[in-house]
UniProtKB/TrEMBL annotation:
InterPro entries: DUF465, DUF465_sf. It comes from Brevundimonas variabilis. It comes from the Bacteria. This is DUF465 domain-containing protein. The lineage of its organism: Bacteria, Pseudomonadati, Pseudomonadota, Alphaproteobacteria, Caulobacterales. Pfam families: DUF465 (PF04325).
């Protein structure tokens, strides 16, 4: 898999997590621990994307 393809894949997962986080936050019974873990996963994806982007250029 090329770096560009990996960046696209990670970007898609990042956007999906963003959608899931928004849905969780809008639920009547929000689980703050789950939201925190989702945000942590989203941040790790963003860090990996940034790292790959710096290597690609």
């Amino acid at each position: 898999m090329t770096i560009e393809a990996r960046i696209r894949e990670l970007g898609n997962r990042h956007r999906q997590l963003d959608t899931v986080i928004r849905q969780e936050v809008n639920r009547p019974s929000v689980d703050p621990l789950q939201v925190r873990e989702l945000k942590r996963r989203k941040l790790r994806l963003k860090e990996e994307i940034t790292s790959l982007e710096s290597r690609a250029h």
